[in-house]
Design goal:
It is a single chain. Helix 1 runs antiparallel to helix 2 (65-72), helix 2 runs antiparallel to helix 5 and helix 5 crosses helix 7. Helix content is 53%, strand content 15%. It has a single domain (7-217), classed as Nucleotide cyclase, GGDEF domain (Alpha-Beta Plaits, 2-Layer Sandwich). The chain contains eight helices and five strands. The longest helix has 27 residues, at 191-217. The chain is α+β, with helices and mostly antiparallel strands and 218 residues long. The protein has a five-stranded mixed β-sheet with strand order 2-3-1-4-5, with helices on both faces.
């Protein structure tokens, strides 16, 4: 019998949280930001645990990568590094924020998070469709790795381009710099390649999720 697909579980874990006792304020800000971003696409509100792990539960038509980008592309010396997992699957009935929910998808996300830590990957994505998930295992971690290499300025520019969808001229105007300066950040941060890889990951996610949902409906 095929497993049902009810929603998308999203975990974001602060890397090295034992050595960063000051992450609560950051997690509160990120939780609020994601709550606003997914206001109409949540099955349960975002929240975080005492172990510095953010959790969210989204509808199947939501774009989970907006959350990943919002966290990873935030610029600032006090912004902690995070590890993310995205898993589609079955959710038990319940209420309250994501940290109070349960079900097979949450259990799977916990296993995937342990796998991500073991592999030292900052992003693992699972749709439940094996063939597509193999491809996502080869692409999603690379996307996170490329983002990690960006400077603070490049992250800000990439965030405005990839999350807000702004053109270089608008980014330059917003930051009060010359367009040529933004163009240099694009080139040195290889933002165009990041955008293409992000599109590829999103397409694979959509394909895998569609197949998994179709199989579950049979």
């Amino acid at each position: 019998m095929a497993k049902r697909i009810d929603g998308i579980v999203l975990f974001g874990d602060v890397v090295g949280s034992r050595h960063r006792p000051d992450t609560t304020a950051w997690l509160e800000q990120l939780t609020e930001r994601l709550g606003d971003l997914y206001r109409d696409s949540m099955l349960a509100g975002f929240d975080f645990t005492q172990g510095d792990e953010l959790q969210g539960l989204l509808r199947l038509d939501a774009d989970p990568f907006q959350a990943v980008l919002s966290g990873m592309l935030t610029a600032g010396d006090d912004v902690p590094e995070m590890r993310w997992v995205v898993v589609a699957g079955a959710i038990d009935p319940g209420s309250g924020p994501a940290t109070r929910r349960n079900g097979p998808a949450f259990l799977a996300a916990r296993e995937v998070m342990a796998e991500a830590k073991h592999r030292r990957d900052r992003l693992i994505v699972r749709t439940g469709e094996p063939d597509t998930d193999v491809l996502l295992d080869d692409t999603a971690p690379v996307l996170a790795s490329l983002i990690e290499r960006l400077t603070q300025r490049q992250r800000k520019v990439a965030q405005m381009a990839l999350v807000e969808g702004l053109r270089q001229s608008v980014i330059a105007e917003r930051l009060g710099v010359r367009r040529a300066t933004i163009s240099v950040s694009f080139v040195r941060g290889d933002v165009r390649s990041l955008s293409r890889l992000l599109d590829a990951v999103r397409k694979l996610w959509a394909i895998g999720l569609t197949r998994a949902v179709a199989r579950a409906a049979k």
